Amino acid sequence: MMRTILDTLLELTPAPTVQADPDEVLAALDRVLAARQQPLEALEAALQGGRALDPECSALLEELRARDARWMAAVVHARHELAARLAAMRRMRHRGG
């Protein structure tokens, strides 16, 4: 059961598109998070009680964590890009352009 849940989560967690438009990154993340909600709840329930993972499931969980980290990096990049765009727009308004 644990293996099935982790496989499902990995299928639902593709790598983010490198250097994608920030709006696309955020929209894709919304879709990923919505799709993962139920499997994550199942994973949480399966892990209750401190149940140990076998090596294969541990490797899958590490891969899932790595993909999550790539998504967080993509979100941080998108946030910085949006902040830069907003700053540029403010400068243009301030200059009267």
What attributes does this structure have?
97 residues; mainly alpha; 3 helices; elongated
Q: What count of domains describes the coordinates?
A: 1
Overall body shape = elongated
SSE topology string: HHH
Query: Which class do the helix and strand fractions yield?
Result: mainly alpha
User: How can the largest sheet be summarized?
Assistant: none
**Which residue ranges are poorly predicted, with pLDDT under 50 across at least 5 consecutive positions?**
none
How would you characterize the overall build of this protein?
By secondary structure, this protein is mostly helical. It has one domain. Helix content is 78%, strand content 0%. It contains three helices and no strands. Helix 1 packs antiparallel against helix 2, helix 1 packs parallel to helix 3 and helix 2 packs antiparallel against helix 3. It is elongated, with a radius of gyration of 18 Å. The mean pLDDT is 91.
